[in-house]
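Mods, move this if it's the wrong board.
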Amino acid sequence: MTEPIGLRRIRRTLMIHRITQVVLIVLLLYMAILFQQRFQQKYDSLKPFFNSVVLAVLIQVAVFFPIRKFADNEARRELNAAVKEQMSIDEQKQLRNQRLLGDFIKASVFIFFVAFILILKEQATFVHSTAFFCCIGTFINYLQNYNFAVRRRLSGTAAG
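Not the wrong board. C-alpha cells:
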C-alpha cells in the first residue's frame, strides 16, 4: 500500500529537522569556542563562560515542558491533517489558522532572540552568550520534541 502524500511530506520535514539540528549543534559548538576565547581574552577567566552555560541550561530546563507541549500539539495537528483524505472547508480554514498561529509563535521567538542579541553593542558579554545559547537551545529543543512526537505517533498508528 502506498503512503499518503501528507505522510511523505511529514517524513521530509523530519529529515529537514534532523539536518537543521546538526547545523545548529555545529553553530553552537563554534560559538562556544568563540565565546571561550573572547572571555579568556576579555576577563582572563572562563568563569563567565561557564556561568553562562549553566544559566542557559537552567533556562532550557524551565522552558522544556512548554516547548514539548507546543511541539506535541503541532505534531498531532500535522499528522491528523496528513492522514485525512478529504477535509471540509471549515477544517481547512481551522488547520490554516492553527498553522499560522504556530508559525507566528515560532517567528516571534526567533525575532526576540535575534533582536536581543543584535541590540547588545558589546561582544562576548555574559548576557550575550547566555542569550545565544538559550536561542540555539530553544530551537534544538523544539525540533527534537517535534520529531519525537511525530515518531511516537507514527509508531503508535503503525502498531495500532
